[in-house]
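CO-FOLDING WORKSHEET

Operator: S.A.
Ligand of interest: adenosine-5'-triphosphate
Run index: 225
Mode: holo prediction, single chain
Checklist:
[x] sequence pasted
[x] SMILES validated
[ ] output reviewed
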Amino acid sequence: MDEPVVTVVGLRVAYGSVTVVRDVGFDLPPGGALCLVGENGAGKSTVLRCVTGLVEPSAGRVRVFGAAPDGTASFWRRVVTTVEQPSWYAGLTVREHVELVRLAGGDDPTDGRVDELLDVLGLNDLGDSTPDRLSSGERQRLLLATALARPAELLVLDEPEQRLDSAIRPVVAGLLDEHRAIGGSVLLASHDPVFVAALDCPVIRLHSGAPMPDDPGRPRPDVSA
Ligand SMILES: Nc1ncnc2c1ncn2[C@@H]1O[C@H](COP(=O)(O)OP(=O)(O)OP(=O)(O)O)[C@@H](O)[C@H]1O
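OUTPUT RECEIVED:
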């Protein structure tokens, strides 16, 4: 069997004396998707931050591609995340941002993928605009276009549906399906049950930082030394 892309065991995160994530555990296989759901403050983003190495767990184990996430360039070549909001380059257009990401990933920015992403995400008419002129929903589309512009093995997306209108949400779900179909994996948090249902993937429901007992992504004890 293929090794999981992500393994989380007995994850706990505390800020001072306040524990905000506890007993979270799951495996994410290659080509798989897993969605974290739950109320505001339930701990979803914190779990995503641990998986991307942006937050250090207080206890438990996180492995991505078999190793602790280390924030190195080689780690980020395999992982794309929207957990941190990017800064856009002043003076670069929407199209140029997507081309730049594609170029930096070693891909040909003129091979049609940029056009395809702008088209499917409804950004064609905004290709020559700069990001500061976009609405918040249009900027979210640009964020997703840049996330999908280079083929990373693991996508870690925090509420990819946020600020998107209902027409574009199924399009985004379709793009994530395509990513999985070529062997990529997706770990995400979402507040939209329709979007989650469209992804047709296991769900972990967090409540006050802990998984609800009936989750398929069941909590697992920390067996690390
Ligand atoms: N740096 C921090 N210091 C202290 N507490 C924090 C910090 N970051 C997050 N928290 C707290 O941790 C808890 C979980 O936050 P988190 O952002 O993971 O929730 P969430 O499920 O992603 O929420 P939302 O749906 O609102 O995005 C919240 O109570 C939040 O206030």
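REVIEW:
Residues 15, 20, 38, 40-46, 189 surround adenosine-5'-triphosphate (CB under 6 Å).
The helical segments are 44-51, 73-78, 94-104, 113-120, 136-149, 169-181, 193-199.
[x] output reviewed
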